[in-house]
Design goal:
Blueprint: H1 2-12, H2 19-28, H3 36-39, H4 42-53, H5 59-62, H6 73-79, E1 92-100, E2 103-110, H7 116-128, E3 134-144, E4 147-149, H8 153-162, H9 166-177, E5 184-193, E6 196-204, H10 211-225, E7 235-238, H11 251-256, E8 259-268, H12 270-275, H13 281-298, E9 304-305, H14 309-320, H15 327-330, E10 333-340, E11 344-354, H16 366-374, H17 383-407, H18 410-417
Parallel strand pairs: 9-10
Antiparallel strand pairs: 1-2, 3-6, 3-8, 4-6, 4-7, 5-6, 8-11, 10-11
């Protein structure tokens, strides 16, 4: 009994113990490393977790994991990462300026691929010298698709038909929107597969990318459906049934959109193509068709009619605190070229599924928030503008890479800028 009382006293005031005793509690199993932040200041919790989890590694490994000098553990451990043992410095480059709809934007890129930022900057220069990009943007909302299982196909059909009644949609809209001041339900679409029912929910989520917001709303819808007669025997298999579609390239998002759908275009004069991109309109157009359309079709790509859109999307996402895994969906791009005038080239990029936000998630981290601020000098960038910069930067990146392939400079550039000598 005395031991139990002493142990409870110790556990209630761990912060007063020296590091050695806390580590002993961790190694004995009396204290779990994932609960350290409940008892200690964030930086100390991270330091002790690192010592505990890397105890069996040599000093050369343990001391090489960066820990000191990161001032934002208080934010990171609360909303961005679990089991934190340090931070990972990723080189940050700045490409641009990129001229879109008459406004200049800088493009921060976090990457370990040499030549990427230089190549993107060349594309931005070609675009700017051609009068800039014109862009349109439409917001379609974030999606989530709960998966339900009904007793039989007849009951499943009746459950799917329930959503066709406008009064029922009004009911679930009220339930959904009660979970957030920002979430606004746009549509609910059921899809039956045998006795499985997928419910694709689409909602506006303000300036946030919105996955957590819409997930919370979908849970509320599910709770409400449990009170409806036709759903009384349902089994909730998953909050997400992959019919959303999240973090995967898909025909669903390619056709029906998710997040922002952006189109960008520019017409490059022959002299800019020759002087900046070192190639010709004919060569660029032929390569774009043969590589990005024929090659991608042979490979069975969905949304893959591009050379390296994911490079730009992932670099920009990482730099600005977006969900990096959503590069898998957001990078779906179609690049179209058309020969016009006397050696000029029309180029467009279509991206129907750009999932970005300017609040929440990783954007709450000060470095990532700063990168969002530096993108526009004269104003604070909006979420819609961020989506347009993503697409515009992809277009610029496509132009530069395709040109390097046309001129045979790709390997040479990488040897100069992406090689330790």
């Amino acid at each position: 009994l005395l031991y139990t009382i002493k142990f409870e006293i110790v556990m209630s005031d761990i912060s007063s113990l020296p590091d050695e005793e806390i580590l002993a509690l961790l190694h004995s199993g009396s204290l779990k490393h994932y609960s350290l932040e409940h008892h200690l200041a964030p930086s100390r919790a991270v330091q002790l977790r690192k010592q505990y989890l890397l105890a069996d590694h040599p000093d050369s490994v343990r001391n090489s994991v960066p820990f000191e000098g990161y001032p934002h553990y208080d934010i990171a451990t609360k909303s961005c990462c679990d089991g934190v043992i340090g931070f990972l410095p990723v080189p940050l480059g700045l490409a641009g300026p990129l001229l879109i709809n008459g406004r200049e934007f800088s493009v921060p890129i976090a990457t370990t691929e040499g030549a990427l930022v230089a190549s993107l900057s060349r594309g931005c220069r070609a675009v700017s010298q051609s009068g800039g990009i014109q862009s349109t943007c439409s917001y379609f909302g974030m999606t989530r698709a709960p998966l339900l299982k009904l007793p039989c196909i007849q009951t499943c059909k009746a459950a799917a038909d329930w959503f066709s009644d406008p009064s029922h949609v009004t009911q679930i809209t009220r339930e959904f929107e009660s979970t957030s001041h920002h979430a606004k339900l746009r549509s609910v679409t059921p899809k039956q597969a045998g006795k499985l029912l997928f419910i694709r929910v689409v909602a506006a989520t303000g300036d946030a990318m919105g996955m957590n917001m819409i997930s919370k709303g979908c849970e509320k819808i599910i709770e409400f459906l449990k009170t409806v007669e036709v759903f009384k025997d349902m089994i909730v298999l998953s909050l997400s049934g992959n019919y959303c579609v999240d973090k995967k390239a898909s025909a669903m998002n390619w056709i029906n959109h998710r997040g922002y759908s952006v189109n960008c275009e520019v017409t490059l004069p022959a002299k800019v193509i020759a002087s900046v991109l070192k190639t010709s309109a004919g060569a660029l157009s032929e390569l774009n068709f043969s590589k990005n359309h024929v090659g991608s079709s042979l490979a069975g790509c969905i949304g893959g009619n591009n050379a390296h859109a994911a490079n730009i999307v992932s670099g920009l996402f990482l730099a600005t605190g977006q969900d990096i895994a959503q590069a898998g969906t957001s990078a779906m791009t179609m690049v179209i070229t058309e020969l016009v005038g006397d050696g000029d080239l029309y180029v467009s990029a279509t991206m129907p599924c750009i999932e970005v936000g300017t609040v929440g998630g990783g954007t709450s981290l000060p470095p990532q928030k700063t990168n969002l601020k530096l993108m526009a000098v004269d104003h604070e960038i909006t979420t819609e503008e961020l989506a347009q910069v993503v697409c515009g930067a992809v277009l610029a990146g496509e132009l530069s890479l395709l040109s390097a392939l046309c001129s045979g400079d790709l390997v040479k550039s990488h040897m100069q800028l992406n090689r330790i000598t």
